[in-house]
Amino acid sequence: MPGVAEHKSVKSVVNNFSGSVAVIDLGSNSIKVLVAARGADGRLTALHQHTIEARISAGIGGAVPRLSEEGMTRGLLAVQTLLDSVAPFSPARIAIVATSAVRDAENGPEFRARLRTVTGHGVRLLSGDEEANLIGAGLTCDPALAGLRNFTVFDLGGGSLECLSFRNGKLHQEVSLPLGCVRMMEKFSSNPAAAFPAVAAAALASHVKEQLVASGFPLALPADGSAIGTGGTFTTARAILAARTRVGFEQSDPILHLAALRELEFVGQLPLAERRAIVGLPAGRADIFPFALVTVLALAELGGYREFRQSAYNLRWGVAAELFGQCDQQGNAAAFDRPS
User: At the topology level of CATH, where does 2-129 sit?
Assistant: First the structure.
């Protein structure tokens, strides 16, 4: 019986660690779960990860941002599915966090209330600063970044772009900008199923640069600095490039060179139906990827970056690390269970 074998396998993995926590991230485009455990050396390890492209943010690009009924329904179903998927791991704590789409939507409180009613779990609504700081905390879990001291991080989601500057290994400055790829698609395209016109792409690039300049965020890197990219856009770019070179994702180069990213501009020149056939590009991201890519290229041009290092260690890892800290200080452990 495959189900029994799988359950035994999960139990054997969990038994190698002292306990686990689960984090569900209600992202604007995708809803993701991480089950993490902490080893004897204090490092976090992923026991389970899964992503559902729910697009709860459809509609947030309007003058009055609102979550659509269809988006909320997809979100509720996705969260319940992910909660079911973590049950075999018996996590000591489960945290559900919401970011830009729910934060900015006029009916965000309604969605959080419905989610609590359906699942029995509260939702922690993160401010832009909290989101940025937790992304920074997540990056400290990435072994590949252990030696880096000066770097700038861009986490591009569906609703917002989180920018973080690290100096001497510590968070120096952060800013959250409403430049998420779902927002930008709704703002700069009347027909996402068609090819993305060059004129609209240029307008989007100018908008991104104007927002970044106005924010005052320090884009310039020190001589020994690196630009780090997290979130679905950078993961997708790496996956497409890996497929084009016929190597597996894990074996592919995490360094995304500017020249290689520019080669992916052909995606925006295709209608949606043809984009969905591109290997490495998830069907649920085929409509927003051209807008996300223009945003990334605008970042590179403005900051003078020749490459980005892709990292999968972002918000969920930061929340997991914080949860383990709360488990160590049980008086504060209830913080993630509060409805907000």
Answer: Nucleotidyltransferase; domain 5 (3.30.420)
How does pLDDT run across 218-240, given as a tens digit for each residue? 999 988 899 999 999 999 999 99
CB atoms within 10 A of CB 283: 12
Greater pLDDT, 3 or 229? 229
Question: In b/e form, how buried is each residue of 21-58, taking b as 16+ CB within 10 angstroms?
Answer: bbbbbbbbbbbbbbbbbbeeeeebebbbeebbbbbbbb
Which of the four CATH numbers 3.40.630.30, 3.40.50.720, 3.30.420.150, 3.40.50.1360 does domain 142-310 have?
Answer: 3.30.420.150
Residue in 196, 207, 159, 191 with CA at minimum distance from that of residue 60: 159
pLDDT digits (tens, 9 = 90+) for 74-130: 999 999 999 999 999 999 999 999 988 899 899 999 999 999 999 999 999 999 888
Q: Packing angle between helix 289-303 and helix 198-215, nearest 10 degrees?
A: 50
Where are the CATH 3.30.420.150 domain residues in the chain?
142-310
pLDDT at 8 over 60: no
Q: Which three-class secondary structure string do you get for the chain? A: CHHHHHHHHHHHHHCCCCCEEEEEEECCCCEEEEEEEECCCCCEEEEEEEEECCCCCCCCCCCCCCCCHHHHHHHHHHHHHHHHHHHHHCCCEEEEEECHHHHHCCCHHHHHHHHHHHHCCCCEECCHHHHHHHHHHHHCCCHHHCCCCCEEEEEECCCCEEEEEEECCEEEEEEEECCCHHHHHHHHCCCCCCCCCHHHHHHHHHHHHHHHHHHCCCCCCCCCCEEEEECHHHHHHHHHHHHHCCCCCCCCCCEEEHHHHHHHHHHHHCCHHHHCCCCCCCHHHCCCHHHHHHHHHHHHHHHCCCEEEECCCCHHHHHHHHHHHHHHCHHHHHHHHCCC
- Rounded Cα–Cα distance for residues 266 and 33 (Å): 32
